[in-house]
Amino acid sequence: MFTGMRRYLLLVLGLLLTACSDDGGQADATLPDIGRDAAADISTPDQVPKPDAPPAAQICGTLKLPTDLPLSSGDLLVCNDAQCNAGTSDSTGAFCVAVTSADDYLFHALEQQAGGKHLGDLMVPVTVSASEVSTSATIDLGVMVMSEVGPAVLLDPATGGTLDLGSGAKLVVPAGATVLPPLKSDASVALAVLDPLKLHPRLVGALPGGKTPEAAFVIVPAAVSFSSPITFELPGPGGLTTGTTLDVVRVNVDNGKLELKGEATVDAGGKLVNASGKGLSALGVLVLVQQ
Q1: CATH number for the 153-290 domain, one of 2.60.40, 1.10.357, 3.30.70, 2.60.220?
Q2: If I label 80, which of 2, 48, 71, 269 is the partner at 20 to 30 A Cα–Cα?
Q3: Could you give the C-alpha distances from 130 to 55, 85, 102, 133, 186, in angstroms and in order?
Q4: Predicted TM-score (pTM) of this structure
Q5: What are 87-107's pLDDT values in tens digits?
Q6: Which fold is adopted by the domain 57-145?
Q7: Distance from CA of residue 77 to its chain's centroid?
Q8: In terms of Cα–Cα distance, which of 203, 99, 68 is closest to 141?
């Protein structure tokens, strides 16, 4: 009798355990829903919010060849005293380069070979304001036409000599002249005569005292400067009185600031020649203004 009762109790206990197990199964079945709700608040690596990019102004424009065709794949830089950002024009000549801080910059389309032409450097100073950066403004430089330079002449600082650049332009470099930065080999010097009336408005606006440009040139390589002034002869603009003295203002290739790099006078033949003891001390983008 006791044995039968024990079997009966064991049977009831087994049924109870089975029921508990089933209830537990139902409870477990709800866990994935709770888990999914909790997981919804946990982002996967691809969903983790990324910090917003800092605001940046865009310096944009279009590069063209002297033939008015677009300059594609044109190399360019936008630099301030701290760094340079590189860019390239697209198939239509369009470009945009971002800057993230308010500062004075230099837009610099580099000397290059393109469209079967040797193009000289094109430089324009650009001032970017804090409000332009904070609003991600687009600073449009418009259409910018690069200039073709004439035949190149080799400059060996060790031997110097007279460099005839064509168009009535000559540079006389004394033997042993110190050239900065030091040249690893002979430099190919070439010149383009610019129309002062077609200079970029930002370049004209940066001239000292709001002066009007009388003449302008690009002499490559633009980064070369001399330890002491060299003598020169450049084609005059016409209309200036003999003896008129002009300042030679150069666009700094690092930051776009304008700096005095020589003086010129108008000779009896209307040419621009170096003032006594105050010749040209650097190549690059040069603008001549009356003193």
Answers
A1: 2.60.220
A2: 71
A3: 10, 18, 5, 5, 43
A4: 0.80
A5: 999 999 999 999 999 999 999
A6: Immunoglobulin-like (2.60.40)
A7: 2
A8: 203
